[in-house]
Every structure is written in structure tokens, then in C-alpha cells.
Amino acid sequence: MTSSTSVAVSFKRREMVILGTQYAGEMKKGVFTIMNYLMPLMPKRDLPPADRALPLHASANIGPDNDVSIFFGLSGTGKTTLSADPKRAL
Q1: 23 by DSSP, 3-state: which?
Q2: What residues form DSSP beta bridges with 6?
Q3: 14/22 Cα distance (integer angstroms)
Q4: CB atoms within 10 A of CB 43
Q5: pLDDT digits over 15-51, tens only?
Q6: CA 8, CA 48: separation in Å to the nearest integer?
Q7: How far apart (Å, rounded) are the C-alpha atoms in residues 17 and 71?
Q8: Which of 61, 41, 60, 37 is nearest to 52 (CA)?
């Protein structure tokens, strides 16, 4: 092993332990992994769209005319920076 960082996930207990890092992104990525594991099993096609969920690694904002922009991308690619337009609400 070349890293002192350790991330352990128990899907059965719905727990995650992160050791040896000060990078908060590990927690975000761990929670996102658990969401992707659990959530796709829950929505049923007959539910109205508002009751369904799809976990995405994205950011979004809305313009004054209710136009929506969604930014998809890997960590560190600028999704938050691009969505933080002062003329648009997050």
C-alpha cells in the first residue's frame, strides 16, 4: 500500500469510516457511492417524477426566466465555479 489513507464502506450497516486524510472530498465521494448503490433500487417507474431520485455528480443553477443549467463532471473540473454565476440562483 502506498497511501496512509483508508476508506471503508459497509453497505449492510450503511456506514463509512475515513482515516488518514484531511480532504473532505473523500466523504462526498463515499456518500455518493452509497447513494448510487441504494437509490436506483428505490424508484419505481409508476411514481411521479417528483418522487423519484437520481444521484448525479453535478451542479445546477436557474436563471431569471426559470431557465436551468446543469453542469456534469469529475471532481475538480469546475462545476461549482461555473454554476456560481451572480446573475443566476443556485
Answers
A1: coil
A2: 19
A3: 22
A4: 13
A5: 888 888 877 777 777 887 887 777 766 667 787 877 7
A6: 35
A7: 29
A8: 41
Cβ atoms of 30 and 16 within 8 Å: the answer is yes
Instruction: Give pLDDT, residue 51.
Output: 75
Whether 27 and 57 have beta carbons less than 8 Å apart is answered as no
Which three cell numbers mark 59?
451542479
Strands 58-62 and 15-19: unpaired
CA–CA separation, 25 and 7 (whole Å): 12
Place of cell 441504494: 38
Under 8 Å between Cβ of 70 and 54:
no
Which residue is associated with the grid cell 488518514? Answer: 20
Residue 54: C-alpha distances to residues 36, 40, 50 (Å): 8, 7, 11
